[in-house]
Each structure stands twice: as structure tokens, then as C-alpha cells.
Amino acid sequence: MSEFKNDKVLDHDLPRFEEVELTPVSPKYLQVIIVNSIIFSLIVMGAAATGYFFLKEVLADYLWMFFSIILGLVLFNFGYQILAFGQRKYAFRERDVIYQYGLISKSIIIIPFDRIQHTALEEGWLSRSLGLKSLTVFTAGGGGSDLSINGLPKDIAESFNQLILTKIDSEKALSDSLTNDNLSAVTQDYTHDKSTLDSSPHDEHPV
To answer: Using an 8 Å Cβ cutoff, are 66 and 73 in contact?
Structure first.
């Protein structure tokens, strides 16, 4: 049975994820982002045109301002999505997965393999035509997906999915082994104490 240790960890001993070289998602995924942005822009502009049709009497004096704001929002979203694409990066280490995204506010998600319950591979019609897949990770206690890495090449997504599943099985086997060792140790201690009590002489009390 392995000896339990809980030594103090110094600051310089902690692993630094900033030093990990992250891998950008596939450049092909930019096409998916552009198509989605165009569809979103058409929906917004269509909604704006419909709103103006019903409110043209109210908005008649503010027509240029109304459509300028709509056009500005559409262009901002389009530019933001393209620039933020360069910040989509990931890395798989021995015990966890790292994902970075965001432009104005950069976010970094780190999920240990021992927290992952299951994974899923997904692909849309455009991603399928480009040979891309999304890897979604679900953790214990989460109501939905905790991490989705979009824009992975199909072979890489499938390889990482198998890697995570293998790691999950390995971590579970290790946890079960430690649990069984601890239960065995407790049982042995209990048996030893019981044997000691049974073999010790009992006090005799006169009647």
C-alpha cells in the first residue's frame, strides 16, 4: 500500500500553464466563423428592416441614425469574430486539457482529466465539409457542457477524444485501487484491534 503524503507545495514547484505552448485551431474554422457571422448579420438587418417597416413614421426623422447603428453593430460583430479567432488555442497535457479564447477579455479554461465524466464529438454541415469536428467535455456536477473546442481537424479531434477516454479509465482505475487499499488497511486494523481485545485478560468482579 502506498504511503499517503501531503507535503507543502512551494510557489516555484507549481506547474505554470503560461509556459505551455498552445496550438491554434484549424485555419479552416475561420470559414465557419465568417459564414455564421454573415448569417447573423442578415438576420439582424432583416429584423431591423422589418422593425422600420412597422415604425417608419416614428423613425422617419432618424432613419440614417437607425441604420447607422445597425450597420455599426453588424460590422463590429463581424470584425470581432475574425480577430477573436486568432485567440482560440488549446493544449492537452498528461493530466488536463487547456483551452484559451476571447479577445477583449481573454479566458483560459483548465479541466483535469479526473473531473471529466464523458466527451462528445460534434460536427455541423459546414464543418463536416471542411473535415472539422468539435470536442465537447462534460465534467461532474455540470448541468451542461463545460468546454467545447471547435475547429479541430477530424483526425486530431478523434485522437484527443480517445486520449481523454483512456485517461478517464486510467484515473478511475487508480482511484478504485487506492480506495480498495484504504478499505483493506482499515479492515486489517479493525481485525488486529479486535484480536487484541479478545486475547486480553478480563477483570473478575467478586459477587
So the answer is: no
